[in-house]
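Dissemination and training. As part of the outreach component of the grant, students in the summer workshop were shown how a complex can be specified as a set of sequence lines and then modelled as a single object. The example used during the hands-on session is reproduced here so that future cohorts can follow it. Participants entered these lines:
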Amino acid sequence: MIISGLLTSVAINFALCIIFFTLYSILRKQPGNYKVYAPRLLAAGKARRPRHFHFNRLLPTAGWIKNAWLPSEDDLLSYSGLDAVVFMRIITFSLKVFCIAGFIGIFILIPVNCSGNQLHDMDYINISNNSLEVFSISNVNNGSDSLWIHLGAVYFVTIVVCCLLYKEYKYIASKRIDYFCSSKPQPHQFTILVSNIPVRKGNTVRNSVENFFTENHPATYLSTVVVHRKSKVWTITNAVENLFSKIKNFRRVPNRHQYMHLDHLEQKLNEMEGSVRIDKSREEVRAAFVSFKSRYGAAIAINMLQGNNPTQWLTEQAPEPQDVYWPFFSSTFMGRWISKLTVIFSCAFVTIVFLIPVFIVQGLTNLAQLETYFPSLKNILTMKIVSQVITGYLPNLILQVSLKIVPPIMKGISSQQGYISVSEIERSACHKVIWFTVWNVFFANVLSASAFSLLFILLEFKDIPSKLAVSVPAQASFFIAYVVTTGWTSTSSELFRVIPFVASLICKPCNRKKNEFTVPSFRYHQDIPKILFFGLLGFAYFFLAPLIIPFLLGYFCLAYIIYRNQLLNVYAPRYESAGKFWPVVHDSTIFSLVLMQFIAFGIFTLKKLPHATSATLPLPIITLLFNEYCRKRFLPIFMAYSTETLLKKDKADQYYPDMPQFLEQISAAYQDPALAPMVYSASSDNLREPLIPTAQVRG
Amino acid sequence: MIISGLLTSVAINFALCIIFFTLYSILRKQPGNYKVYAPRLLAAGKARRPRHFHFNRLLPTAGWIKNAWLPSEDDLLSYSGLDAVVFMRIITFSLKVFCIAGFIGIFILIPVNCSGNQLHDMDYINISNNSLEVFSISNVNNGSDSLWIHLGAVYFVTIVVCCLLYKEYKYIASKRIDYFCSSKPQPHQFTILVSNIPVRKGNTVRNSVENFFTENHPATYLSTVVVHRKSKVWTITNAVENLFSKIKNFRRVPNRHQYMHLDHLEQKLNEMEGSVRIDKSREEVRAAFVSFKSRYGAAIAINMLQGNNPTQWLTEQAPEPQDVYWPFFSSTFMGRWISKLTVIFSCAFVTIVFLIPVFIVQGLTNLAQLETYFPSLKNILTMKIVSQVITGYLPNLILQVSLKIVPPIMKGISSQQGYISVSEIERSACHKVIWFTVWNVFFANVLSASAFSLLFILLEFKDIPSKLAVSVPAQASFFIAYVVTTGWTSTSSELFRVIPFVASLICKPCNRKKNEFTVPSFRYHQDIPKILFFGLLGFAYFFLAPLIIPFLLGYFCLAYIIYRNQLLNVYAPRYESAGKFWPVVHDSTIFSLVLMQFIAFGIFTLKKLPHATSATLPLPIITLLFNEYCRKRFLPIFMAYSTETLLKKDKADQYYPDMPQFLEQISAAYQDPALAPMVYSASSDNLREPLIPTAQVRG
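and obtained this result:
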């Protein structure tokens, strides 16, 4: 990419950001847009329509920034939950790391880089078109001792990041325990999901579960809710509902012929109801929510092998009631397994398909190549402004749009993997999106410059560092543009909420119910990978081309204010995983560190400084050992609570006055919403009631 | 290797076997050799010196074979434990598999192989020297359709082995549960080992443990035994003992001057005793055996995360008291970790060092090469008998001797890995020896023919099948000789117990205490890898060169009788892991299967039958999925007992009359034998007692 292209990109995006900010600060004050910009406040009754019109409403103001800045972490915790706090801490962690790395980069490495003259010696490089490279490591002379400063910087940043990671992991782990200790009794703390329940002939699932748990957990067992297969019952339910509305219509317009028909229909309804009842016993899935009298009792049932056949009586922590993903209860052991295998193949397929836009992007950044493919475009392409837009802005726009659709796709794939809660699905999708981004944005972009066959490159393992060392610095300006486009603009558009805003504009005329709106939930699987990927870019480039860091810092500052604002005004937490996203963040930061060290290894080999090359070797080993230690030290805390904590909490509950009432209501919390009993025909009153199946408490 | 060399080897080894059998059947009847050939019977008082001399004693008889054959599996179970049964089942499993594979190999594949004429077409191969190859797959014509029969055989054997493996895993898992259910209450079932105990300042380890468990497991906690560091206390103990014997000597020869000296010494003794007492409180290691009132209580403490810091309060099942490996209680979390890393490096080092004898062996099998290196040996080497011994017998002898010392080395390495029981050490050593054997005997021998640099071969992953396809059939006769030498002879020498026999001969004249002898324990880590390796050879060769199977079957029959005999007469079980060796066997059989499939893949590529090549591809995938299923289905049973089983057993114990007494004695079982309190000076009576520290029951 040529430098003017980069500048064009920065200019366009800066302008877009300003526009978004201005528009937002005006539009958010219009009561008609409260649904878009403050649905959460509206739902809480905090956003009220002003009585009088102020001219102030039409001026852009920055008051919202202050409002987003002011609340403390504890306020955020009590308002949006621990997951939101963890999310914000990813941003502050990145800010801390890149302030330090940026300081080293700008004030130490850039002067060193500029003092070299490797690029001047190589006459065949057109300096004017690559002037950014003067600030990069490429300009340091081969074999120069000043490369030791770069090595020192890599060591220093590795150590700083490890210390910060350790501190952060420890902090979030303690927050997680505190959060649990200060939480009110919640149904999911007392409940487990049992799957693959063995049922003897002539016995029901409910009986099997009750027998098993009253025998093996007599002191703590409380109640059981058996899960039902949705699809078939749904079909019948829908049929009944259709029939029901037909009858209703008939009653409204009574005439003799139709009354006869009505009798026939009511008979049919009775039959169907019978079949629903029979079907319910038949359609019990071999899974059940089992509740216990204490958290410790539930934890014991989760951690111990229950039956002598380890594929039966599988136990896991129940998700929060509102977090349960009802459509997918693949109850058999083999079913879950097969769906897992299918998911792996789907992911591979999606990854390969998405290489196509990446290669288009690569083609655009190499205009010369494009000209050879499409000679007819030559006249247009040689226009300066066109070439600048094409090389600077267009590639990133294509990438950005194609990447926008990846998180929903990955979530769709994850939902087929047999997870029983939305939070698990989003966590799994988060993993998938991270690796997809690293693979398809970073590696595909970096390496396709040298070869199109990515897989074959990665098979030749020992050549990777040197290949990265050649290609990564060459893509510095591309990724600066990426930070500016995808980082700045897409974050500002997150503030502006382009799609919901446009949707509300379109729906306004045709929407009759004015007070209907939904409070969206935060899409962690979309935004966490984005932030982590910018972190990866920062690590990969901070010692190669430190010029990227200021742009990154700008992004993180933007993200800090904007996401805080959105968490406070727009999104309501749908579930609370109590910080379970942090291990994902930790792992991918470690990956970024090791990638940085590999690139350093390759660079020092390339720059002919063998001693520095061997001096980098201990770094990945130390980093991975550190990671291993953290896995053992902190990860178990994110998997389960300790005996100590559980017992303390259970003891504290003895003094909680509503406890008996709470225990009675637990099983009602896990009622499958699609499966509440329907009694339409029994009394004719029902026919006038709205068509909402009422939930009954079972067990 | 030339065919006459192979015949020589078979002849020598057959003769050796006959000699060993004859000698054994005579020597075992001499009362002087009871210590060597029936120490277990002797210890049980079942082997009595005959009153009169019978001439029969000097004749070889085969009565012992009948005695070894007759006992049923249940007899063996009650006499030698479940581990011995599992060991014998490895042999019977191999016998079953190779009877089927041998039938296919001999009656289907050999006729097919012989009908080909690939080798006749290639004039440059000297048939007379390679006549064994006529029976092997090398003789089948390239592209011949009869290779599909080989593919069918590979499929058939894979399916048969998977079925047998599943059946066997299921059988042993059920045996394991039965064994547990029928066992008497044993201390280790009620006890856990807690390590990395956090201790506050001014508190002892004992207090910390007692506080923690009385608070968190009030209903089930029973008692605590804190572990002490051995080395330093041992030093002081030895010093006290020395001093004590000095005083004793002085008292025997009383005179005035010495009495004064004696006073001085007694004063010193008092001081030292004080220091031992102080030292004991200081030398508490942060590990303790904690006992519970029920098995279920202990299991809960093992499976649950105890403290909020997952590196503290680590819990694991306690080993049987006699199985505890006292010298190594690396109590810190980091200590265990570092020792694990060290062990990995030591293993790699040992593996590399042992490549040297392998290459010597390779040199010997290629005599021509040896002649070029040492021209002066030419005259000797051209003598027929010398060349036959050198190519046929010597290489295997070298391998056998060098492999003999590997199991003890691996056990030594494993003992530094932080395991706290001998059984775990031996199981870990078993793993190490298996991989060592596969690597250094199979791969090194097979591949060194084509290249010395093994590592580089394995880095080029995709070439492995074709390389194996070329080199594995070429080594068929070498491995037949290996089966005959290492298999037949070393198993017969196991019967004859060469080293203990020679040792007893040497010791007899200088051994005063005639009745002293030790009952050895079975070295599972030495014999299981041997059997598994022969299994691997069988799988690798059954469709390449089926001629190896009869030799293998001979070996397994020998092994069946001999090991049964030894388990009944010689070895006493030192510990009972209740079948925990079986998962090792399962995994390595799966490895052998996949290796066979890889070789098949390579062979079909080499033989230019592309459809057959692609038809082998599903095989490893199916096999690995099968393995994954078995891991989930059976492995957890070998890790822990289920709630169901534990509660059933605990309930049954309520009717066991000695239960209260048993619970009282549990903590005494885990007394560190080196650490019993010493009170020598308190009463002068003690001075006349023998110097055996008496064990006191604590806690």
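Residues 678-699 of chain B have pLDDT under 50 and may be disordered. Students were then asked to discuss how this feature might be tested experimentally.
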